[in-house]
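User: Could you write out the 3D structure of this protein bound to magnesium ion? I've included everything you need below.
Assistant: Certainly. Input first, then the structure.
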Amino acid sequence: MKFKLTRKQKKMLRRIIIAAVLLAVFMVIDHIFELPWPLELALFLIPYLVSGYDVLKTAFINLIHGQFFDEKFLMMIATVGAFGTGEYPEASAVMLFYQVGELFQSIAVGRSRKSIAKLMDIRPDTANVIRDGEKITVSPEEVNVGETIVINPGEKIPLDGVVLEGESTVNQAPLTGESVPVNKGISDTVISGTINLTGVISVRTTSSFGESTVSKILELVQNASDKKAKVENFITKFARWYTPCVVIGAILLAIIPPVFTGITNWDVWSTWLNRACIFLVVSCPCALVVSVPLSFFGGIGGASKEGILIKGAGYMEVLSKVDTVVFDKTGTLTEGVFAVDDIHPNIVSKAELLDIAAACESFSSHPVAQSIVRAHEGHIAKDDVRNVSEIAGKGVKAEVRGEVYYCGNGQLMDMCGATWHDCHLTGTIIHIAKQTPSGFEYLGHIVINDQIKEDAASSIQDLMSLGVKRLIMLTGDKEKVAKSVAEKIGLTGYFAELLPADKVDRVEELLDAHSGSLAFVGDGINDAPVLMRADCGIAMGAMGSDAAIESADVVLMDDKPSKIAKAIKISRKTMRIVWENIVFALGVKIVILVLGALGIANMWLAVFGDVGVLIIAVINAMRCMRKID
Ligand code: ADP
Ligand code: MG
């Protein structure tokens, strides 16, 4: 581990070293010469003040403002108490180690902030925009939608857009964690925040900087710490009670035993005062207050390196408890890139049927629509197509060259009342019907097929081995297609021919039927309502899709279902570390409190109970940032 300390941290470190050396030297001198107490006191006050003068100052200021349970105030009381009872080296050491803990904590927080800041590195600084035939460099905020920008090799792509000219490879690792570069050529989309590697490309921007993928992600990561986990809230509340309770315990411990035993000589008082000081030293809950949020922060940071954006610690908690994963089919388990397999016209010719279908679909962003448009190849005049309306989960209705058509699945045909028939081929069947004065006339259908994602089956295996019990697919597609996909990848169940609203109903039924958390995974295309309804909505393939980034709780930047298992693993690891720290810190503190009350623990152990525990908990929390496989 390499640290770069800030100036303040360096100053602090210097003071700690000086104080430590002085303390050690004085302890040796004291041991050899058995100094008289006033001299001893004077000597040990030096390292005490060197390491802790600022603590004392802050404590005084806080005291004036009436803050009694402030940790610095407690440190002051504890150390002054230790001096009072003749434990000079101990008193000095408590302050020294307290400062070591403070320094450590500030380094750890800085480091994890830096790991998030590294992610922030995706923020582009400049854009080269072409204006009046000249290339000028401006800040990305100043570029308008539809302008042309030029990106040189090695530069960050500042805005989302479509390539107009040139060819290049792009490193999308900053967003997806995937280190294999992707090729980009004319009319491919490029995403802001990724890095152009090899060629010069001109890009027509499709979003303003504020609306770009990079801005959305940055905003999301910055706000991640707002959505607190339940444990985090618990710790905050707990800390508010813990400290006053221990302080009251310390006061009682100092007063009650000597008063009750009736022995009031100085030795007895000093023994109990000393034990009370031990209480005060372990009264600081900072090990918990610091390490729990730090763990979540680290976990969220570590996940983002993998292209997994978790919108808050709360979702991390939910994700770790997932026992049901519900998938959308198209674009989630399958590529969402359909290939047209066959065209079966009824009255018209094949070419005519495809032409009509492509025209109807030319405004839709649905994977089905895009595949038909792609298969069409020819040009579709935008003016030919009017009054397009999408019927979610069914298809589209459009007016093409003055005629009204419905283009979609069997349900859509039933809706318009066309007499249609199914196809003998397996696949997604898109039917087309034309409006006539006497109703809708069936024109035929197009058979399209989608491919199951390469890692779909293995992802299902991974999820099962993580103990996820229910793996269920929901789809608007036909029963036959759904069954074949579900069997091929080994799902535990599926529901077919669902409209978006039916999907919400199914998820609600599943939510009612079990106790663990339910995650829904979709691609953000017409499944936003389900994403929001699930305990944890996971959107995949979010690069460039605003809808997915906004409505989901967890965003997977690329399209890989394998990232779901990874996200669960990361969240479980984070939760485990959080609980390790809670149990460890509280356990040690309670043991020391008990031993302290019984007179078995000394001040050195108390220092361990405070600073030692803090340091160990923080080191443990830092593990959350590390990659897992
Ligand atoms: P999934 O649940 O698989 O993601 P959707 O709910 O998006 O699917 O769509 C369900 C079905 O509705 C599709 O299989 C298709 O038959 C039909 N459909 C949806 N949108 C369109 C469209 N734009 N054009 C034609 N058919 C569509
Ligand atoms: Mg879908």
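The chain has a mean pLDDT of 89.
User: Perfect, thank you.
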